[in-house]
Amino acid sequence: DGLNTRAVAAGKLYFGSATDNPELTDSAYVAGLSNTADFGQITPGNSMKWDTIEPSRGTFSYTKGDVIADLAAKNGQYLRCHTLVWHNQLPSWVTNGGFDNATLISILKNHITNEVTHYKGKCLHWDVVNEALNEDGTYRSNVFYNTIGPSYLPIAFAAAAAADPSAKLYYNDYNIEAPGAKSTSAQNIVKLIQSYGAKIDGVGLQAHLIVGSTGSESVSAWTTNLNAFVSLGVDVAITELDARTTTPATAAAVTQQAKDYATVVQGCKAVARCVGITIWDYTDKYSWIPGVFAGQGDALPWDSNLNKKAEVYNAILNAWGTG
Ligand code: G3I
């Protein structure tokens, strides 16, 4: 019995975790990650991003990504492949290359075709484009948008579909967990891609939550928002869930955090086309949060000593229920 077996019993494909190459020298950590009762899916936190995969033009380096893909295969876990097109962790040869429209389109297609072909048959999902939107729902300024315009999105999805027709292709973003301008714009991205005749299979809601804050108020807000995507004919997945608080977390914060996790799980459970939930690593030992938000963290169901936080873990189990 565990987080993944309960998710599967509830009709989902998986409950999973992100991971990263440096952590894989920690054998206790790897044992926890590889326990398929809890984790039926993994996502590489960094090693399939553009700066790792194509650090200079036309030079592809798959060593680190392959380590994560091989671990998933060895454990019998699904792999969510993350991410092909993002403004961050994008090498400066792309950002500052001064390429014209036609050249940047060919660079974009070449990157996607090469990487998706390399991992063909191994990725349950691809996060094709990540974080294309600003908080107000306008398009984020990045080299692809500024050079190619919004059509960079359908171009990217079409290239990915051609290279691996069986991978499910996702648009992935944060702060789209509740109804609002950014969620509406993410829905418009789905329509844009469809209007070009390109394939999009799903939307990933990252869900980097703040304990007791937006994104975890109610199950009905979750289901309303998820159903707005589903009504466009796509699946949804919770792709990077965590819930941060001021460290060290108080007992009251942990109680609220347990409720927040349960709310997300209940929201996904209630929507048939919500296919699974991924936490953005499973232990506070390796969370990205303290490095970015000073004084914040304690966001995951396992503490920094790899011990389960019983209240949070059990809240997730109970939210999945027993089938
Ligand atoms: O690889 C270098 C290493 O050589 C160097 O010694 C070290 C010193 O700081 O930095 C290492 O790079 C770090 C990299 O992770 C790999 O560990 C970067 O500084 C660090 O900024 C980077 O953070 C990652 C972050 O994306 C970058 O934006 C996090 O690990 C990763 O969890 C995070 O993941 C993102 C998702 O992809 C998209 N959604 C948001 C999420 C959280 O920010």
From TrEMBL:
GO terms for biological process: xylan catabolic process. Pathway: Glycan degradation; xylan degradation. It is an enzyme of class 3 (hydrolase). It is found in: Secreted. Keywords: Carbohydrate metabolism, Glycosidase, Hydrolase, Polysaccharide degradation, Secreted, Signal, Xylan degradation. GO terms for molecular function: cellulose binding; endo-1,4-beta-xylanase activity. The keyword Hydrolase applies. One of its GO terms (cellular component) is extracellular region. It catalyses: Endohydrolysis of (1->4)-beta-D-xylosidic linkages in xylans. It comes from the Eukaryota. The keyword Secreted applies. Residues 1-319 form the GH10 domain. Transmembrane segments: none annotated. Its EC number is 3.2.1.8. Belongs to the glycosyl hydrolase 10 (cellulase F) family. This is Beta-xylanase. It comes from Karstenula rhodostoma CBS 690.94.
